[in-house]
Amino acid sequence: MKKEDSYRDFVLDQLRSLEGVTCRAMFGGYGLYLGADFFGIVYDGRLYFKTDETTRLEYRDRGMGPFAPGGEVVLKSYYEVPEDIVEDDEELVSWAREAAARKGKMKGRAPARMKR
After folding, report:
1. What's this model's pTM, rounded to 2 decimal places?
2. CB 3.0-4.6 Å disulfide test: which of 13, 37, 46, 89 passes with 100?
3. Contact yes or no for 76/1 (Cβ under 8 A)
4. H helix intervals, 15-115
5. Domain coordinates in residue numbering, the chain
6. What is the pLDDT along the chain (116 residues), one digit of tens a residue?
7. Residue 46, helix vs strand vs coil
8. 75 to each of 6, 17, 48, 115, how far by Cα in Å?
9. CATH 3.40.50.720 fits 3-100, yes or no
10. Handedness of CA 20, 94, 89, 74 (dihedral sign)
């Protein structure tokens, strides 16, 4: 199992109490969905959530930056989730709900449910 896959599995396990979370390969990592709402990215051993002007401040206050593979910011509204939040499943679920509420819809086919 690749390192990326094991981190993805860890994140999905942390989000297990959030019904309706699906995952699919994208961006060289994985996209996370709650229903049709694209709310997160697992990439290079890091987790990023959808933000807006209001929620982004919490991420910045914690020293987190935007999704920038290779050093180039490509999705300005997706910010890295602090590790202490990732480690706390209840807090992570709360942050995931907030991220999904940002209405990060992606056009295209519906995500397939990831088998574990």
Report:
1. 0.85
2. 37
3. no
4. 55-61, 83-87, 89-100
5. 3-100
6. 465 689 999 999 999 999 999 999 987 899 999 998 899 999 999 999 999 999 999 999 999 999 998 888 878 999 999 999 999 999 999 999 999 998 654 444 444 444 44
7. strand
8. 24, 27, 10, 27
9. no
10. positive
